[in-house]
Amino acid sequence: MSVPTSGQRRTYLKADVRRAQILDVAKDLFARRGYRVANVADICEAARIGRGTLYQYFDNKQAVLLALMEDLATRVRRILEERPKVAAIPDAAQAPPAMIAAFCQRRLRDVLDAVFIDESTLRLVLREARGLDGAVDQVIAMIDDLVIAAMVEDMRAAQKAGVVRKGDPEMIVRFLLGGIEKLVLSALVLDAPVDLDAICQTAVELELFGILNGEGRK
């Protein structure tokens, strides 16, 4: 039986609620103190539980971190699966460029919102935890694959609708996503604000119109 630290009052929660509580406390603690500095005792103290209670759910601190990442991946997958599918745009070839750009920006923002649903965990992993555990890197790769698959699906639909030119959709998406990731990762690692609207606008304008000015495109 786990015994709370002196001065703490024991609280009883259902298993799923307790697990979620431990993860919420750990995420906040890791973000404030740093993953390397915070330890199991800190998590238990903040959650007002004994070590035995924590070990019923997680083997160690790395297992807590991995659970945070797996929960993030689950939420990303759910959001991407539940968002409306891209329907063929009527008369896409005649659609005004501004309308197409706005549509593409909204779709890209949906994808980024799915990833940034838990920005604090993203910052934590990219700043401190990546590379500490191969399993964590595997979850990061899985999230990356989810985003790529969603964007490839959008690209194929846009090609079918005649909105963008033909080409290998996965190659196009990986090229575009590389620039987006560079902007996002730089901000996350440096603890700088991430302006998702500006990123979406810049990415879509470059994707649809390139970098040449109006005269250069003639």
Keywords:
218 residues; mainly alpha; Tetracycline Repressor, domain 2; 2 domains; 67% helix; elongated; disordered N terminus
Could you characterize what this model shows?
- The structure is a single chain.
- By secondary structure, the chain is an all-alpha fold.
- The chain folds into 2 domains: 15-58, Homeodomain-like (Arc Repressor Mutant, subunit A, Orthogonal Bundle), CATH 1.10.10.60; 62-209, Orthogonal Bundle (Tetracycline Repressor, domain 2), CATH 1.10.357.
- The chain is 67% helix and 0% strand.
- It is built from 9 helices and no strands.
- The radius of gyration is 22 Å and the shape is elongated.
- The relative contact order is 0.11.
- Residues 1-8 have low confidence and may be disordered.
